Amino acid sequence: MNMKGFTLIEALVAVTILTLSIAGPLMVANRAIVAAQMSRQQLTASYLAQEGIEYVRAMRDDAYLAAYQAGNTSVAWNNFLSQCSGSACVPPLVADAFGNFTRSVEVVSVSSTDVRVTSLASWSFHGAIHSVTIYDHLTPWQ
Question: Domain extents for the chain?
Answer without folding.
Answer: 8-138
